[in-house]
């Protein structure tokens, strides 16, 4: 479809006939993201509230379809890239975010830690260094005052506000650590996402755990077992060993479903549930 045809379709979006509008919407959505600049231009040039509302709706549907597509592709071929998965989730709420801002901030945090990192440091000393850079110097902290807020699950907002939930803080911490070749990975502990520092000589064995929501507090295996005991759950590998990135992104989406449910945003809750369902499929 050429530009003139697209402009003609967009000019008809104020048609009061619902069936005509539905046909127009379907055609424009199939055009994909390429049509968004023209839709945005028509929104800016129009004073028609009906047309503007319909344009917003079509843009959102196109962007949501793109997020769905990107997430499917990530699941199939790019699960090793945790940050890539987090940024796709981010695009659901912030489709126009310049994502290089997130890469730049993480690179700055890595550089700040690398400057002080010494080869002979013990694992505990490395964690103390990361804690100092991320929590004291940068100011990252748990959002205890608004724990259920949706923004706690979007990495750009967490880096901007410096406040997040356990899993978003853990993702930032582990992404910085892994960029420094420090073997720290996420553990899918029920009710509270934590990190595990793995033994360098035996990558399958946990050295200790890190509670990022409590400013990098170091925890032993006994602490995790006791926590699981309180929840009447077994001390199984599922809860005590690092999980894969797919499990992390699923948990981020579950948190978002709960967050939108908490603020009674039914539409967003349903859309995020669709994204979660997509990842749950075999």
Automatic annotation (TrEMBL):
Q: Which InterPro entries match?
A: SirB1_N
In this chain the Protein SirB1 N-terminal domain maps to 101-254
PANTHER family the record matches:
F-BOX ONLY PROTEIN 21, SI:DKEY-261L7.2
Family statement drawn from the similarity comment of this UniProt entry = Belongs to the UPF0162 family.
> What protein is this chain from?
Regulator of sirC expression with transglutaminase-like and TPR domain
Organism taxonomic ancestry: Bacteria, Pseudomonadati, Bacteroidota, Sphingobacteriia, Sphingobacteriales
